[in-house]
Amino acid sequence: MGTWQLGKFEDRVDSHQEAEQRPAASSLKAAPLATLLPVDKETSGRSAEARGRLGSSSWCRSASWTAGPVRTS
């Protein structure tokens, strides 16, 4: 294994260990969308809450709502 490959592997191991120490995203309450942006390792997978008007395309897929364009207030 080359030096750069070993470094990449160690970085992945470290990021996986950090992720295991954080609470599961599904166990956290939904947060206002603005507080979760920009998306990074800390906010990825979190439930967001936004208020506004739905566009013309919204549908329910597998027991959760998916919205098309949303104009936030």
Please, could you describe this protein's structure?
The protein is of the alpha+beta class and 73 residues long. It has one domain. It has 1 helix and 6 strands; from the N terminus they run αββββββ. The chain has one helix at residues 3-21; strands spanning 31-32, 48-49, 52-54, 58-61, 64-67, 70-72. The strands form 3 sheets. A two-stranded parallel sheet has the order 1-2. Strand 4 and strand 5 form a beta hairpin. The radius of gyration is 18 Å and the shape is elongated. The model has no long low-confidence stretch (mean pLDDT 76).
Task: Present the secondary structure layout.
Layout: H1 3-21, E1 31-32, E2 48-49, E3 52-54, E4 58-61, E5 64-67, E6 70-72
Parallel strand pairs: 1-2
Antiparallel strand pairs: 3-6, 4-5
Head-to-tail CA distance between termini = 53 Å
Mean pLDDT: 76
Round the Cα radius of gyration to an integer and report it: 18 Å
Overall number of structural domains: 1
Q: What percentage of amino acids are in beta strands? A: 15-25%
Helix content: 25-40%
Count the DSSP helices: 1
Oligomeric assembly: single chain
Kindly state the number of beta strands: 6
Q: Looking at the structure, what is the overall shape?
A: elongated
Unreliable residue stretches: none
Strands in their spatial order, largest beta sheet: 1-2
Described by strand count, sense and barrel closure, the largest sheet is: 2 strands, parallel
The helix/strand series, from N terminus to C terminus, equals: HEEEEEE
Helix-strand category? alpha+beta
